[in-house]
């Protein structure tokens, strides 16, 4: 049995296949020809200093748990001692026992009164600081209940923007080494941060303006997470313009597309 072939349709199919292959080859060549600059960005976090203020519902629930724990708990050694001394005092007044005066020189009640007096003198530090009242975004003593993120002013093209510290990768460096060098170049040695690991936690890319595309079409930024050490000092570079912002403030400060990438790895 002979197979009949429609030659015009076969010719069209071959032509379409050739054009598709040619398009893919052109696209692959264009993609290969594109060069991107590699950057390492650093997310520096100042973790909360104080516990977060409880919401009314949270405070009510905590009060209920504390009361339940109190009702079901055993008496402490102090409470047992206090009860024992109370019974001894009653027996002493009734003349049924004779105790050495040294034995009751400092009773449990005396200790409790001293503790209460010391507690009454204690004044907790304010949660709202002077930096909060002045809205000093350069200070680490603000928004103590929240995590703050470091932004530094950097020039991209002809404009300056506040971004996470980022620097271009150099030959022979790992991306983490680039991130560490970048942070040191921006902030100096006084600011000490601990990096979480060798792998980036986020990614962002952008294209340069057409007139600036001399060697590369754009930049690819790989972000590394770090946390500010407790004994770290303020930034020593007096010429650097920087801000410590909360997550809500970051959303207002950063460009929308940039913030969408950064927000993916914010806690």
UniProtKB/TrEMBL annotation:
Kindly indicate whether the keyword Phosphoprotein belongs to this entry.
Answer: no
| PANTHER family found in the cross-reference section | 39S RIBOSOMAL PROTEIN L46, MITOCHONDRIAL PRECURSOR-RELATED, LARGE RIBOSOMAL SUBUNIT PROTEIN ML46
What's the protein here called?
Answer: Large ribosomal subunit protein mL46
The top of its lineage is: Eukaryota, Metazoa, Ecdysozoa, Arthropoda, Hexapoda
Q: Cellular component per GO?
A: mitochondrial inner membrane; mitochondrial large ribosomal subunit
Q: Which SUPFAM superfamilies match?
A: Nudix
Output the Gene Ontology terms for molecular function. Answer: structural constituent of ribosome
Q: Which InterPro entries match?
A: NUDIX_hydrolase-like_dom_sf (IPR015797), Ribosomal_mL46 (IPR040008), Ribosomal_mL46_N (IPR021757), Ribosomal_mL46_NUDIX (IPR033650)
Question: Where is the protein situated, by its record's location annotation?
Answer: Mitochondrion
Say which family it is in: Belongs to the mitochondrion-specific ribosomal protein mL46 family.
């Amino acid at each position: 049995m002979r197979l009949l072939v429609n030659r015009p349709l076969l010719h069209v199919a071959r032509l379409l296949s050739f054009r598709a292959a040619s398009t893919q080859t052109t696209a692959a060549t264009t993609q290969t020809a594109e060069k991107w600059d590699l950057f390492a960005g650093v997310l520096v976090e100042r973790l909360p200093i104080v516990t977060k203020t409880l919401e009314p519902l949270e405070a009510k629930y905590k009060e209920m748990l504390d009361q339940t724990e109190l009702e079901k708990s055993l008496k402490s050694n102090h409470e047992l001692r206090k009860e024992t001394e109370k019974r001894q005092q009653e027996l002493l007044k009734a003349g049924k026992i004779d105790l050495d005066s040294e034995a009751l020189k400092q009773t449990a009640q005396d200790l409790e009164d001293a503790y209460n007096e010391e507690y009454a003198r204690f004044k907790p530090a304010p949660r709202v600081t002077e930096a909060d009242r002045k809205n000093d975004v350069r200070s680490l003593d603000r928004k103590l209940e929240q995590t703050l993120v470091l932004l530094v002013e950097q020039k991209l093209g002809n404009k300056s923007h506040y971004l996470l510290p980022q620097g271009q990768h150099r030959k022979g460096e790992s991306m983490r080494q680039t991130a560490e060098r970048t942070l040191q170049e921006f902030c100096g040695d006084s600011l000490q941060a601990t990096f979480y690991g060798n792998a980036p936690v986020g990614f962002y890319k952008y294209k340069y303006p057409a007139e600036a595309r001399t060697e590369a079409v754009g930049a690819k930024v790989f972000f590394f997470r770090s946390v500010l050490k407790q004994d770290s000092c303020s930034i020593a570079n007096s010429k650097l313009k920087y801000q410590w912002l909360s997550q809500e403030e970051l959303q207002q400060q950063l460009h929308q597309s940039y913030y969408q990438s950064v927000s993916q790895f914010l806690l």
